[in-house]
Amino acid sequence: MSEPIDPAGIQWLRVSPKLVQLRFLREGIGSLVILLLFALPLSFRLLGIWPGFPLWLAWLLLIGAAVVQLWRLLLIPRQVRALGFAERAEDLLIRRGLLFQKVLVVPYGRMQYVDVSVGPIERALGLATLKLHTASPGTNAAIEGLPAEQAARLREQLSSLGEAKLAGL
């Protein structure tokens, strides 16, 4: 996968495909809540609580919300495939985005600390999130969906590289 904004000769490493499951769970729960909220006008109309509300509009709201939520869920596998990172000699590259693509370059010397976080669902799937904190909040970054062992290895490696590059300044 090479895009016009990708630096030349980069071999992107991918996040775990299990991130698709994690995002389906998160987005699925959120979608369910949204659909329940958009079902309220229809429910109130059918129960006679809100008799003046147009029935066609209540159905349109619910169907529209369902279509939008379904579209968001269908995009998840492609969004996960678009995620990538690459380790270079002086910096770490992080790539994301489908329509609006972004390649973030985080120089090792700018890293202040590297953090690994794991939530309960991530733990069950064997995943972790690597967070990079830099001197500038604009270059803070995160790589979600890494296998836990890879996240721990990257944390140690990036911390060491960050200390070495910072000491060299």
Order the strands across the largest sheet as they lie in space. Answer: 1-2-3
CATH class of the largest domain: Mainly Beta
As a percent range, the share of strand residues is 15-25%
Largest β sheet strand count, sense and barrel closure: 3 strands, antiparallel
CATH topology of the largest domain: PH-domain like
Low-confidence stretches: none
Helical stretch tally: 4
Q: What is the CATH H-level superfamily of the largest domain?
A: FACT complex subunit Spt16p/Cdc68p
Order of helices and strands: HHEEEEHEEH
**Span from first to last CA?**
35 Å
CATH architecture annotation name of the largest domain: Roll
Q: How does the overall form come out from the CA principal axes?
A: elongated
Query: Residue-averaged pLDDT, rounded?
Result: 91
Total E-strand runs = 6
As an assembly, this protein is single chain
Radius of gyration: 21 Å
Helix content: 40-55%
**Number of folding domains?**
2
Structural class: alpha+beta
